Amino acid sequence: MSDLRVLVVDDDDDIRVLVATLLERIGAVVRQAPDGREGLREFHAWRPDLVILDINMPGMNGWNVLERIRDMSDVPVLMLTARGDELERVRGLHAGADDYVVKPFGKQELVARVQALLRRAAQGTSQDEQESYADAYLSIDWGQRRVTVGDREVQLTPLEFRLLSTFVRNPRLVLSRDQLLELVWGDAYGVGGDQVKLYIGYLRRKLEPTGADQAPIETVRGFGYRYTAPGR
After folding, report:
1. How many Cα neighbours within 13 Å face the side chain of 19?
2. Is 50 within 8 Å of 7 (Cβ atoms)?
3. What are phi and psi of 111, to 5 degrees?
4. At 88, phi and psi to the nearest 5?
């Protein structure tokens, strides 16, 4: 992790210092921001490799900051919150967060999640050397993060984009739930298998708003999922 830049945005001084100390021990360069507005200023000025973002902050909360970040970047974002219910987790992931940690968190757990996110981001960068993909159903421009189905541009969250990219890079190959957790989420640590089913449903509906069952992502009962492009 040498020279990798991490921005920590949290209004709790003790949490910020703890997270910064943990990540600096493993070689990261860390900057801190005590609120959402300062976090966005640091993000613009510094362009970190990863953001650790608290949800419950006064003024501009974590949801507002995440929305602004996603308007201009797909940098990995790890959300911190005192709430651990499933609806909160789903809201965060669907809004474009990459992972979610509940306070109080274990030190080793936090470091493991950060490392998994950075590994995934590095893998995505090397894969994006292939600039584009097209078949009879859809096309992908990895440089622009753009997906089109016919003449329609499809708006995907970063996680949905990674999920679709994983499918098209493994055409006709059945991918199990655990394989998708590893390839898309980074690893299966702390992520429920239901997240795979949930996001495949989101992706299918976005690809085919009038009939999700017509999207070329097939469920292979008892085994997993596969992408079968028409005419390929």
Report:
1. 31
2. yes
3. -60, -40
4. -65, -40
Q: C-alpha angle 91/96/99, rounded to 5°?
A: 75
Virtual CA dihedral for 95, 97, 101, 103, nearest 10 degrees?
A: -60
- Residue 154 bridge partners (DSSP): 147
Strands 77-81, 99-102: pairing is parallel
| Distance from C-alpha of 32 to C-alpha of 139, rounded to nearest angstrom | 39
State both tokens at 127. 């894969």
The CB density around residue 159, as the number of other CB atoms within 10 Å, is: 22
**Alpha-carbon distance 184 to 228, whole Å?**
19
Give the residue from 131, 207, 213 showing the smallest Cα distance to 163: 207
Q: What are the C-alpha distances in Å from 162 to residues 74, 94, 104, 159, 221?
A: 11, 13, 29, 5, 23
Which burial class, exposed, middle or buried, applies to 38 when counting CB atoms under 10 A from its CB (0-12, 13-18, 19+)? middle
Helices first, then strands: H and E counts in the chain: 8, 11
Within a 10 A sphere around the Cβ of 101, how many other Cβ atoms? 19
pLDDT means over runs of 10, the chain (232 residues): 84 95 91 95 92 92 89 86 72 77 90 83 57 89 89 89 89 85 66 79 92 88 87 56
